[in-house]
């Protein structure tokens, strides 16, 4: 068989492109080795690219090392392999080696190099590469120009990005999307929209980019408006909009959009599923959450750390801790978010010792904790009243893990101290905070004062809250109730007069959600908007009568 005929070489190249596994790729290398064609630069270019496609960088590196005089195309293949397999820095080293060997880079070399610089955020090297592009006369190649637009865009250098964009005589869809993204990242949505509107032929990438820009800017209305008129939506479009609703706490809308997505026949991906499962967790809709889990299983999604942590969080928030633990222990890989979700679930359900033991197990597995997980750890101590343990963990945050406490951590500690009656110690902690205490901190202290009837420190807390939240009635109400309990009616009248003078009124009650037969129902205290409100109040009256019969006496301490 003549291995060096043009048709044979083309045949081998085509077969390498079709390889779907490392075993197939390496079988071809064995054949090339037997026929002494491992020095053929064209075939080695194709082979290294095939190795990259099946995620085998070691095989690509080995093949490259066996080529005595690799040409620029073989170098392009290995640099591209390093980029594709998330080791771009090594690709830059091979580029330097290529220059030392006296080879002249091509436009494809520069495209891969500039993308590598973008991934690594190496400004100096990237600008040097840009200089070499100009030196080699490749500044007008569309792929190189597009890569430079994207490179400067990713660094937030919008002016340079726009300059490159304006110099382009020919622009592909990626160049337009990169420019839109550059403005969106910089928060200049007007300019991003202007570029989008100028685009002669809008593709899905450009639609998704501008919608994502509005999502990141918090402009739900504009994002939704564009999504509705988008001619063709792909999975990224749907997921971006579902994530938009979730991010802005429009969880019901997120789930409704997911249902619409399925009706169009668009298959969701792992990111979509993690987002909708998280929406179920926030709404506390267990049945819908179970349906999502079933959908994941039936459609053979890999339960990775993203879907896994979302499922753990969903089951824990819906009160089914056993299922959350089953998902956790079945996960092959566990990242910090998985550990955080299960520790938080244990803490919220009152399993403080188990939550702390889980944290210690995570620590033994050398997974570095973050600020969020320490909120769960301290919350576990708070729920169980473990003062010494809470203090120890709080101090270890800084001494062992170099994590400076934030407002949430101080809030947990203040709550912990107040629950066990250490009101003075809580006040000392607040006054020693490295951050300015907010209304949540002072509110926790006030709640502790109410519980343990400490009027003196309660007045200190209210004085601070009057400055931080001038129009909030809740804290005034709490202080009035404390004065009423102590029969200090003159002070009750004084606070009420102060509220009237400042125009502080009792705020409307917050609303709650409940899932009944897979439908969500919203309600608030004393409302009558639900279609079945008359029947609901009849049931409440019956329950009230039954409670009185067994000796229940309601607490009327709250006088407002």
Care to describe what's here?
The chain starts with 5 loop residues before the first helix and ends in an 11-residue tail after the last helix. It has 31 helices and two strands. Helix 14 runs antiparallel to helix 15 and helix 20 (321-330) runs antiparallel to helix 21 (336-348). It is an all-alpha fold. Strand 1 and strand 2 form a beta hairpin. Helices cover 70% and strands 2% of the residues. The protein has helices at 6-18, 22-34, 41-53, 57-65, 72-84, 88-100, 107-120, 123-135, 142-154, 158-167, 173-185, 189-198, 204-216, 220-229, 235-247, 251-263, 270-283, 286-298, 305-317, 321-330, 336-348, 352-364, 371-384, 387-399, 407-419, 423-431, 439-452, 455-468, 473-485, 489-502, 533-549; strands at 511-516, 519-524.
| Strand order in space, largest sheet | 1-2
**Secondary-structure content class:** mainly alpha
The pLDDT mean sits at: 89
Helix content: over 70%
Give the CA-CA distance, first to last residue. Answer: 97 Å
Count every helix, treating DSSP H or I runs of 4 or more residues as helices.
31
Please count the beta strands (DSSP E, at least 2 residues each): 2
């Amino acid at each position: 068989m003549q291995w060096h005929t043009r048709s044979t070489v083309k045949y081998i190249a085509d077969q390498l492109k079709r390889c779907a596994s490392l075993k197939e790729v390496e079988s071809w290398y064995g054949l090339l080795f037997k026929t002494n064609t491992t020095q053929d630069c064209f075939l080695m270019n194709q082979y290294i690219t095939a190795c990259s496609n099946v995620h085998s960088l070691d095989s690509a590196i080995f093949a490259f090392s066996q080529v005595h005089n690799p040409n620029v195309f073989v170098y392009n293949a290995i640099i591209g392999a390093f980029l594709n397999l998330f080791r771009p820095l090594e690709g830059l080293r091979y580029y330097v080696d290529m220059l030392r060997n006296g080879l002249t880079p091509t436009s494809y070399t520069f495209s891969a190099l500039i993308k590598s610089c973008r991934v690594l955020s190496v400004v100096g090297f990237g600008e040097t590469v840009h200089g070499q592009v100009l030196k080699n006369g490749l500044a007008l190649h569309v792929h190189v120009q597009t890569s430079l637009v994207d490179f400067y865009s990713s660094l937030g250098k919008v002016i340079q990005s726009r300059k490159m964009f304006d110099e382009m005589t020919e622009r592909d869809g990626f160049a337009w999307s990169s420019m839109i993204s550059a403005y969106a990242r910089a928060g200049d949505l007007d300019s991003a929209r202007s570029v989008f509107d100028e685009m002669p032929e809008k593709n899905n990438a450009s639609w998704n980019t501008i919608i994502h820009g509005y999502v990141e800017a918090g402009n739900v209305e504009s994002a939704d408006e564009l999504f509705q008129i988008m001619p063709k939506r792909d999975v990224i479009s749907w997921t971006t909009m579902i994530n938009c609703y979730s991010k802005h706490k429009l969880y019901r809308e997120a789930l409704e959009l997911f249902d619409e997505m399925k009706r169009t026949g668009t298959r969701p991906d792992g990111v979509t599923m993690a987002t909708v499962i998280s929406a179920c967790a926030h709404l506390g809709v267990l049945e819908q959450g179970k349906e999502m889990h079933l959908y994941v299983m039936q459609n053979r999604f890999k339960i990775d750390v993203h879907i896994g942590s979302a499922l753990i969080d969903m089951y824990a928030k819906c009160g089914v801790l056993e299922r959350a633990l089953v998902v956790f222990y079945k996960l092959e890989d566990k990242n910090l978010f998985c550990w955080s979700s299960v520790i938080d679930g244990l803490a919220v359900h009152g399993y403080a010792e188990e939550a702390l033991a889980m944290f210690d197990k995570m620590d033994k597995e050398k997974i570095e904790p973050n600020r969020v997980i320490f909120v769960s750890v301290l919350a576990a101590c708070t729920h169980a009243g473990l003062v010494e343990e809470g203090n120890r963990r709080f101090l270890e945050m800084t001494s062992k893990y170099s994590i400076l406490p934030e407002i949430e951590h101080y809030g947990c500690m203040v709550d912990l101290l107040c629950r066990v009656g250490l009101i003075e110690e809580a006040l000392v902690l607040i006054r020693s905070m490295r951050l300015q205490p907010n209304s949540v901190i002072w509110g926790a202290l006030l709640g502790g004062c109410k519980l343990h009837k400490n009027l003196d420190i309660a007045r200190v807390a209210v004085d601070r809250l009057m400055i931080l939240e001038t129009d909030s009635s809740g804290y005034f109400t709490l202080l009035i109730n404390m004065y009423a309990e102590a029969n200090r009616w003159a002070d009750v009248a004084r606070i009420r007069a102060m509220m009237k003078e400042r125009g502080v009124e009792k705020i409307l009650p917050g609303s709650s959600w409940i899932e009944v037969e897979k439908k969500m129902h919203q309600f608030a205290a004393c409302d009558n908007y639900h279609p079945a409100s008359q029947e609901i109040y009849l049931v409440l009256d019956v329950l009230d009568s039954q409670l009185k019969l067994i000796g229940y006496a309601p607490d009327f301490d709250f006088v407002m």
